[in-house]
Write a structure and sequence with these properties.
Blueprint (H helix, E strand, L loop, with lengths): L1 E7 L9 E5 L4 E7 L4 H16 L9 H23 L9 E2 L1 E7 L2 E7 L3 E6 L2 E4 L6 H7 L5 H6 L19 E6 L5 E5 L1 H4 L4 H7 L5 H14 L6 E7 L1
Antiparallel strand pairs: 1-11, 2-3, 3-4, 3-5, 5-6, 6-9, 7-8, 7-10, 10-11
Helix pairs in contact: 1-2
Bound molecules: magnesium ion (MG).
């Protein structure tokens, strides 16, 4: 397994409120939101608590056990952000997305809340693993909008689920069977908001993972760089 990651503040923001985690056992991106520095606090706290709460899968561990431990780790991260948000006025209402991938025995467990994304790249074809927890993402699932309209829809940034905004959290979970050569991209919305899918698909195919991540960030900035952008690329 090889991996690379990159985060960038973008061209318009004063702060980078995205956080990410790459340690070989867990890969995760988090996109924080809230006034002042609250978004930064939310995304980094969520990842720290998530990492501390989740021990890497044991070789003999069942999928169901890993799934429930992941769910529990997300619940703890949610609780930590929720409680911190109530501890200080300037942190009130903060929250974060969380999209994490944990490799285990030829598979990858994905756990997801919010509008960051996981995408699988197999033999040059890129397919989404997660769906966005946004008003527009839900409309897309109900086929009320097309993916082209969804990309520019005025309500596309409205989240329907975020970590830390309520006492309880519902996370999506998926298990992917991975093949040798598969790549997994985790990214925050700063990437796909300003870069077309076909350009993302082209960039993630680059031989060198570091330069592929650099290319993705460059494309986001060329596309306006309106938001922070974070990408993690893993090759199995
Ligand atoms: Mg963002």
């Amino acid at each position: 397994m090889r991996y690379a990651a990159k985060t960038d503040i973008g061209r318009l923001r004063n702060l980078n409120e995205d956080s990410y985690l790459v340690d070989g056992d867990i890969f995760a991106v988090a996109d924080g939101m809230g006034g002042h520095r609250a978004g930064e606090v939310a995304s980094s706290l969520a990842l720290n608590v998530f990492k501390a709460a989740f021990e890497k899968p044991r070789p003999d561990e069942s999928d169901d056990d890993i799934k429930s431990r992941l769910k529990e780790a997300v619940a703890r991260a949610n609780q930590a952000v929720f409680e911190r948000s109530r501890s200080a006025r300037e942190l009130a209402g903060m929250g974060t997305t969380l999209t994490a991938a944990v490799p285990a025995d030829g598979k990858v467990h994905i756990v997801h809340v919010g509008d960051s994304r996981a995408l699988l790249i197999r033999k040059g074809k890129m397919t989404p693993v997660t769906s966005d927890h946004t008003l527009v993402g839900e409309m897309l699932l109900r086929r009320e909008v097309t993916s082209e309209t969804a990309r520019i829809h005025p309500l596309r940034h409205i989240l329907t689920r975020a970590l830390g905004t309520e006492r309880d959290i519902r996370s999506d979970q998926t298990i992917l069977e991975v093949q040798t050569g598969d790549r997994l991209l985790l990214c925050t919305d700063g990437l796909y908001a300003s870069v077309e899918n076909r350009d993302i698909a082209k960039a993630v195919g680059g031989k060198d993972l570091e330069s592929a991540c650099g290319k993705l960030v460059d494309l986001a900035n060329l596309g306006g760089g309106e938001d922070n952008v974070t990408v993690i690329l893993v090759e199995f």
